[in-house]
Specification:
single chain, about 425 residues, BirA Bifunctional Protein, domain 2, 3 domains, about 40% helix, elongated
């Protein structure tokens, strides 16, 4: 009998890795709460038509990647219902907004979720067939300000705060506008016309997308296709004045709160429901597929699935990829940090501190040496940047032979005999 294993594209999350997952989720809940978001939990599967109507029948998600089956009819006269494991969660959240008549409150609904999604795509690093997302949506009647560019900027500022608090360094924000429901068809028509002669020279996926969903051509990562894509029409040239003003207001608000960004005219996102603002945070540590999270505005999604007018904006981040980024940063830090930072307490201790550093280096340890002219606070700041531990070395320590050692990660501070210090540090 063969040994049973996890299905391809799925995996088990085990300790101690789950501790990092819990940290990410706890940080999301803490940061989102400061912006007055509440948690929503929707079913793992929905009626298939929700995604066909909401996400778009011509998207790769709906046409190729969904896990769909026919549920057994409860009676012979009933037609079996087509059900789908959720491939994304925005459509489900908007369905819940409509079903529970949340718009009748007259208030903005600020909702976040954490949970698994399912897509039948080729498994690769950071991408699984069951994957975890953290996401949020701001949706409500226009009278509550749901169409305001301030909502877009606030969501982006919240995401920048979340990534900063999580400790993810060097994340880059790219933004664009894909225009209104009337702008987008004009641009799609211009793209389709421009691709008529060029598509046959492109990859197989782009040849198909040129007919079914030309916007997805702009997402192509095949190197040989990039010169062709760079020469295609730009969405900014097809925006009406209202869409241009909306995007300019988003940028102005981001500037006002100090959130750095770059405008990327190729950023369109792959789902049909996006309008106006689209965005993406990326990180170089993830390689070619470097997106950490993305999202945008979807002012017509509620109407598309049978609900009232309810403009909204939201995002989803792949938790698997966030974890990869954090693990890569931890590995990088571990490889570059010194074992200890020797901090002489006063300039008169410099020579003795150098002797201690010399002894520890002789034992094979990686040591950084401070200067006695530093104030204690500066010694801690420098030590925290350069080493895993700090050794405080003053006259008391020299006289007693007991060194004060603090671990920056745990915050633990202990006394260690000088003769034992090399062994304590791992030599």
């Amino acid at each position: 009998m063969s040994t049973l294993k996890a299905v391809r594209g799925t995996r088990d999350l085990l300790p101690p890795e789950t501790e990092l997952w819990n940290k990410v989720e706890a940080t999301a809940r803490r940061v989102f709460a400061r912006y007055n978001f509440g948690e929503i939990r929707t079913p793992l599967f929905e009626d298939t038509s929700l995604f066909a109507r909401g996400v778009g029948e011509e998207t790769d998600i709906v046409s190729k990647e969904m896990y769909t089956w026919e549920d057994r009819a409860r009676a012979q006269s009933e037609k079996p219902q087509s059900l789908t494991l959720r491939p994304e969660n925005t459509a489900g959240v908007v369905r819940a907004y409509i079903e529970h008549k949340l718009g009748e409150t007259g208030m903005l609904q600020k909702l976040y979720y954490i949970g698994p999604q399912f897509r039948r795509e080729r498994p690769q690093k950071g991408r699984y067939r069951q994957f975890w997302q953290i996401g949020a949506e701001v949706i409500g009647p226009a009278s509550a300000g749901s169409e305001s560019p301030l909502r877009d900027a606030e969501v982006l500022e919240m995401l920048a705060a979340f990534l900063h608090e999580l400790g993810i360094r060097d994340a880059k924000l790219s933004i664009n506008s894909v225009g209104s429901a009337s702008d987008r068809p004009r641009y799609v028509a211009a793209l389709r016309e421009a691709l008529q002669d060029k598509a046959p020279q492109m990859c197989v996926d782009c040849q198909r997308r040129a007919e079914t969903n030309p916007l997805r051509v702009l997402d192509c990562k095949v190197p040989e296709d990039q010169p062709i894509i760079d020469a295609l029409p730009k969405i900014a040239d097809y925006l009406d004045e209202e869409s241009k003003a909306h995007f300019a207001a988003v940028c102005a608000a981001l500037d006002a709160c100090g959130v750095a960004y770059e405008v990327n005219p190729r950023l369109v996102r792959g789902l049909d429901y996006y309008t106006r603002t689209t965005f993406e945070f990326s990180h170089g540590g993830l390689g070619a597929q470097n997106a950490l999270l993305g999202g945008g505005r979807y002012d017509g999604l509620s109407e598309a699935i049978g609900g009232p007018k309810a403009p909204g904006i939201g995002f989803a981040m792949g938790e698997d990829r966030l974890i990869l980024t954090l693990q890569a940063q931890a590995s990088e830090a571990a490889s570059t940090l010194a074992d200890a930072y020797v901090a002489p307490l006063g300039e008169g201790m410099n020579a003795a501190a150098l002797r201690l550093a010399h002894e520890l280096r002789g034992a094979g340890l990686k040591i950084e040496l401070g200067d006695g002219s530093f104030r204690l606070k500066k010694s801690f700041e420098m030590g925290n940047k350069l080493a895993r531990k700090i050794i405080l070395f003053g006259e008391d320590e020299l006289a007693s032979g007991m060194l004060t050692v603090k671990d920056f990660a745990s915050g633990e501070q202990v006394k260690v005999a000088r003769g034992e210090i090399a062994h304590f540090l791992g030599a």
